[in-house]
Amino acid sequence: MPLSLNDVDLFSPEFKQQSYQLYKKLRQDQPVFPFKLPTGKQAWLVTKHEDALNMFKSSKIVKDFKNVNEGEGDYFLENGAYLGENMLSSDPPDHTRLRKLVSKAFTPKMIAQLEDDIQAVTDRLLAPVKEKGHMDAISDFALPLPIIVISNMLGIPEKDRDAFHDWSAVIVESANDQSRIVENQNTINAFITYIRDLVDEKRQHPDDRLISLMIDAHDEGDRLSEQELIATIFLLIVAGHETTVNLIANGLYALFQHPEQMIRLRQNPDLMENAIEEMLRYHGPVEIAPIRYAAEAMDWHGQQMERGDAIFISLAAVNRDPDVYDNPDQFDIARENIKHFAFGKGIHFCLGAPLARLEAKVAFRTLLSEFSDLSLSVPDDEMKWRPGMMMRGLEALPVDLRQQS
Ligand code: HEM
């Protein structure tokens, strides 16, 4: 039966399995689509590239609920109160100040210096799976890689790495599935306490890593409050973790779904950077960009939005808009002029984009050079996207590996 707008239930477990077809319908019939959040709040889903671009650039669409609501925040689908005071949930001038304090550590030049470190972590993670001849590309490889890299950047001591890894897995799970926040509260509190103690420790014994650099910025004057510092450390862990996991796993899955593109990439390693942009467009890690709010009443395609309404831009939908891409459902690693929004656009454009791109480049380069054959261990129809509205990630990615002889 063809899908209809009545099938659009962003909170149903089926949504992710059929969202690409539903977006086609939405783009045609209701590109700014009204729906209700479970809290009862009015929300809008945006599926066209042009609207998304205008909204990303509009100063009438904001991130900080305090700029549109009095009183309690609407933390539904936000990262929870403990994460509130970070750049992703702020508007200028706070946003400008918070972003500037960490942006120096994330320039392409700074990130390029991490390549050897990322390569070493990649090699270390792949060594045991070489012996076995198979892996879950998520739990064995894509999941630990970004968390080890960000721990190194932040300066998490070696001895705390295992605990840090477990805690951050819980935080990421809570950020993606709000219903787990209450259940995970004790772990989240333990993690906050750990970060607080670590900040104290770094104050006594500074090093050249990011937490110490942020403390310096804080101690120079009243520029980064204690709460903002903690919230920023949280944001860097959450924003940079599952996203990068999904880029590596979804990108590998796209290559499995299109074996001719895998061969093409092996034969033309120069296409690697472009292939990663196509992976970001085709199965981008963030399905729907985090919540925004209408700062005033406005009209979009004849739909009346009120001040305070929630706005969700579907990056997955706009990245397959046929007004922008020829054959948008085709995965083509040599596609030209890929202007995807997988990292967002405008002032909140992903700060970690250079890092994510570099991690993906090292990961794919190593996988293709170490293994002469990589294949999905199960039939494609057994593969499942995890439920949850915001992210696009697979439950598991079982892979058979054959080493280069
Ligand atoms: C493939 C991996 C990644 C993807 C697809 C991704 C995606 C995004 C998107 C879509 C936004 C904008 C959200 C919005 O406008 O509402 C964003 C913002 C952000 N990302 Fe990423 N991200 C990735 C990796 C990372 C990494 C590795 C880090 C850092 C360690 C990071 C840190 C951030 C931060 C701090 C922001 C907020 C920027 C601001 O508000 O000014 N991200 N990311």
What would your notes on this structure say?
- With 405 residues, this protein is of the alpha+beta class.
- It has a domain at 84-272 and 346-403: Cytochrome P450 (Cytochrome p450, Orthogonal Bundle), CATH 1.10.630.
- 48% of the residues lie in helices and 10% in strands.
- The chain is built from 15 helices and ten strands.
- The chain has helices spanning 15-29, 49-57, 94-103, 108-112, 115-132, 137-142, 144-154, 161-176, 185-204, 210-219, 226-257, 259-267, 272-282, 315-318, 353-370; strands at residues 32-36, 42-46, 61-62, 134-136, 292-294, 298-300, 303-305, 310-313, 371-376, 398-403.
- The strands form three sheets. Strands 1-2-8-5-3 form a five-stranded mixed β-sheet. Strands 4-10-9 form a three-stranded antiparallel β-sheet. A two-stranded antiparallel ribbon has the order 6-7.
- Strand 1 and strand 2 (42-46) form a beta hairpin.
- Helix 7 crosses helix 8, helix 7 (144-154) packs antiparallel against helix 11 (226-257) and helix 8 crosses helix 11 (226-257).
- It is globular, with a radius of gyration of 21 Å.
- The model is unreliable at 73-81 (pLDDT under 50).
- It binds protoporphyrin IX containing FE (HEM).
